[in-house]
Each structure stands twice: as structure tokens, then as C-alpha cells.
Amino acid sequence: MNIEDLLRETLSDMAHEEQPPPPGRFFPANRNRSRRRGLALAAAAAVTVMAVGSTLVVQGLSSPVAAPKDFTGQGSGETPAETGQGQTTLTVREGQRLTQILKQLSTATGRPLAEFRRAAEDGEALGLPAYAEGAPEGFAFPGTYEVSPTSSPDELLAAMVTRFNRAAEDSDLVAGAGRVGRTPLEILTIASIVQAESTDKRDMSRIARVIHNRLNHTPEMKLSLDSTIMYGLNKSGVMASKEDLRSRSRYNTYARLGLPPGPICNPGADAIEAALKPAAGPWLYFVKTDREKGITKFAASEPEFLKLVEEFKKNRRTG
Description:
Elements: H1 3-11, H2 37-45, E1 48-52, E2 55-59, E3 81-82, E4 88-92, H3 98-109, H4 113-120, H5 123-126, E5 143-147, H6 153-171, H7 173-179, H8 184-197, H9 204-216, H10 226-232, H11 242-245, H12 269-276, E6 285-290, E7 295-299, H13 302-318
Helix pairs in contact: 3-4, 8-9, 8-12, 9-12
């Protein structure tokens, strides 16, 4: 029995599943839709995006451009806030899946969710970079957006991709990925896992180092991460069950070597930075030893890892 199997046997009875988000998560590129490049440019031109502090104002092509106001966000971003002139300010949190973001946009605008799902299928029109391979998961950048009632689903999602492209340029994502021997999509996938697995931003660079070390390990090590399995099964929750571990999904990193085929959420700038510049260290394992306090500890060997598992079990019993 390897070390991951031992941990799964120890923790499987503690797994709790929540209600999954609605189906249709992946929104792969629709290869059969033949849209000309001009449509992508038109979609980008139809969006007026103005920086207002940490907020982007998204206006439809026919929208009057109001004088900007300084908005700082609205809590968790689950409930949009009405602002002047019929506009709505909403905050998209780091680490949300695309399905969650589409529901949030639908609520904020009053438009049917189906319209946002259709818009998400056309990566070319949204202005996705070529390395996205047409799939928008991971490229809907978190942040605060002021939405006009006339903004269409295409325009809103294009604005989020525009914001991602700016963040990618700021972090030098493409060149930075090359420096660590990865593609830009691989780095974004690592960033999404870091975002999903982190409870404290201070841990991000070390979690990123664990992922890089496992990917670069000789002989190869599986990533063995519950977050990727849960995404592949379209489930929420923090721990996979024994049944989940038997999944044949390409996102089952207990069964398959290497990274999953793409991002599992939409990471923020801190997670991208961590993926590009992981902390220096020999760690191959991390354990959330105290979930209540958000404490994560790291280990470089199996004996150290087993001690962390025992610490987790002790905290679980006394918590």
C-alpha cells in the first residue's frame, strides 16, 4: 500500500459531500462553430472596460458611459449590489468554478443562464489566448465588475478574459512558464490547484512547490489531489470518497500521472505568481493539519508525512 492509499484509508470515513453545482461545467471549445476572426474583434470592441480603482466597468456598445465611481467590492460576491443608473456591482471571488461564475452573472443581469453557457462555448469570440485551447475555465479573472443592464453575456465574459490577459501580461506568464519548463496552460492549471488547495495565501508558494516537485520527481509521482477529482466529478466538497477515487475522469490525479487537462477553477494573481515562482524547498507532501484554524504543514519524506497525518487525526478528535 503506497502512502497516498494509506492516507485515503485513514481519512475516507471523514468525507462529506455537498450538493454539486449544475452540470455542463467544462464548456469545451465548440469546434463545429465556424466564426470568423472579425466576430472576436467585434465582441472585444463592443465592451467598454474602464478601470475604477479595483473595479472594471463593463458597458455594452449602446450603453452611455457614466462617470466612474470608486467601488471597493461587495463582500463574498455572492449577492450583487445595485448602483446608480441601473448598474450592478458584483465581485467574483478567487477560486470559483466557471459554472459558479456564470450563475452569478445570470443573477446580476437577470439574463437566462443558458445565454451565458452559450457565450462560454465560443472562446475565439471571448478573446481567449491561443494556449487556452478554446476553453474559458481558468480565464474568467476574479475581481469586482460594475455591470451595465445592456451588457450581453459575450461582452461580460470578454471583459473577464481581457482582465485575465492583463494579469497574464503583468505576471509575464508566457515567458515565466518557459523559464520553469512548463506551458502557460500548465502554469495556469497549477495556479488553479494552488488556489483550490490553499486556505492561507502565505501557503501558496509552498503548495506550488509541492506540485512542481511531484511533477519533476524521479521516478514520477502522482499528484494525488482531491480537488482535481471533485472537479472532474462535478462535485463540491473538500474530500473525495473511496468511490470517487475509482473515477475514470482525466481529472483523477490519484490514478493518472501529471497535471489534469486544464484548470479546475479561476485563480487570482497570487496563485498565478506562486505557480510561476514557487518557494524553494524539498517538500513532496502537504497536510491541512488543523482545518478549523486553517493550518497547513509540509513534509519532504514519508515519515514526516505520517507524523502530519497523526497530527491531523489528533486535531480532528479534539476539535
